[in-house]
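To close the chapter, one final illustration. This time we ask the reader to focus less on the individual chains and more on the assembly as a whole: which components sit near each other, and how the overall shape emerges from the parts.
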Amino acid sequence: MNLVQAVIDAVALGVLYALVALGIALLFGVMRLVNFAYGELITTAAYVLVLTRSLGAPWRAVLAVAAAIALAAIMELAFRPFRNASPATALIATFAVSFLLQSAATLAFGTQGTTIEFLPGLNQAFHLGELVIRWITLISLVVGSALLAAVALLLSRTDLGLQMRAVAGGLRTARILGVRANRIMVAAFLASGFIAGMVALLLSVQRPLANPSYGFLVMVPALVGVVVGGMDRLVAGTLGGFAVGFSTVMLGFFLPANARVFLNSALFALVIVVLLVKPNGLFVRGRRTMERV
Amino acid sequence: MSEWRRSWELVGPALLVVLVAVGGSLTSRGFQYQVQSVLVTTAIVVGIYVFVGNSGVLSFGHVSFVALGAFAAGISSVPAQSLATTFPQMATFLIDLELGNVSSLLVAAVVGAAAAFLVGVPIVRLSGLSAGIATFAVLVISNNVLRNWELIGPGAKTLPLVPRTTGFVQATVGLLLVMTVAYIYQRSRFGRMLRAGREDPVAAQSVGIDTQRQRLGAFTLSGALAGFAGGLLVHLLGSITTQQVYLDLTFVTLAMLVVGGIGSLWGAVVGGLAVAGLNALLGEAERGLSLLGVELAIPTGARLIVLGAVMLVVLMLEPDGITGSRELRWPFAATDGSS
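The assembled structure is written out below.
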């Protein structure tokens, strides 16, 4: 395997994690909430793809994304009581929801993987000289960039985005100024549900076995990426997700074969180092000032 | 009198633990084991509380100290003969080590403390989510190393034949010991300084408290307790794999702490006993349970769903945990504010 091929594979994984990171970062940006149950939105959409195997691909895609959005709306209701709770309580509450949904999936489908069979043709590769590139990598790259651009435009150029940023800045202040905070939060959850549905479509092509921890397993590295990249900035958090995926493959490439089992150690040691050097985020410029008494 | 009332903060929870242990020893054999497991799990939760509760910094990394303690105690107490056959690649000094029950628990505590100190030196500089992710990274690294470096760890195999010395006596005494250390620490000068830093980092700094230094102390102590609890765990289970002390245990023990009340010893004890106890009861109910003449049976696999739902509802009703993150108060005296 040569270096260029490794870079291509690294970009593929990076884009995937970046997409997951985008949904997590959006929700954190608006709600100040780390949603551990974000992965279960992806899992739900994947299982909808499983259940609708007899339908045509467009219908399956629509139903899967709709299911993720619907579940996101339910989550918004479930997390409402935790808006003023401490971060630890809110975090554990989202974890409880994640745990609950994973257990429900285990009860319904078992822990064995179920084949999804969603557009397997897109997982084919084409050859460019010695290089192997899969179509889904290109599609993910395009879809990912488009989604990131759309969300960035939403936040910076629309009225809804302005209100989202106002809510993020301070719930009470935003309300006093006439922002209907509940609507804004529902909108943020729906948008993150939509992104999760899109991720599920792209992921199902590449990883055709759905299981109860399907979404959880991509949510964890993406969440790590969001924190490493910078939680407070949408673009920084998304880039952080990309960085984690990219570094995973590149570290695997550079580690000698007998040390490759320690890939996770190398990756997370890197995470710790980056956090220590840039605690506010790798892709965030400047330093936060400490509060004055 | 007020001294007695104050020590109720430790004596009250301790009485509850003894009550649970004595009550548990009167049940059927299978359930006795469940109760012992509840006590050991609570010891882990209290160990985590010493850092998380007093500092207000969330740690996902403490189960790595539990794991290190468990394997340190396990490997040092399994006879050399059986270790050498199961783990041909393990370092000779580890294989030859043959310790008694109590010394193996001490080794677990020392290993937990040493690991926590080493990791803590850089990590206590971080707060909030950065600290959460950094401690999570510690968890992943320690699991990865234990699972793949067969010179010191069990690899992907099960560590078998650990003497099963944790019964009711050891689980109860162990838990009471952990609680006592936690209580002494939080009443000490150091515990109070750390709590001041938790409430207001800037104000604490302005009166000369080095919050990071206090965090490091608490992190090390908490690592020692977690390692010790890991020792109790391995002597309860009798055999252990690296996956038993990894992600699931991390999230479950943290959830117990938050459900009980993250900011008080009473919360840690109640959360551990209540959630682990509920888990044990539901596990029995999956096998069909007759409680006070009522037949209780739930479908297999429903246990985790009920557990998740209960945790969520409790947090909705009591965002600060069942105990409201307050210590237990002496119930029979008028409150005179002199506490």
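The first strand of chain A starts at residue 114 and ends at 115. Residues 3-215 of chain A form one domain. With these observations in hand, you are ready for the problems at the end of the chapter.
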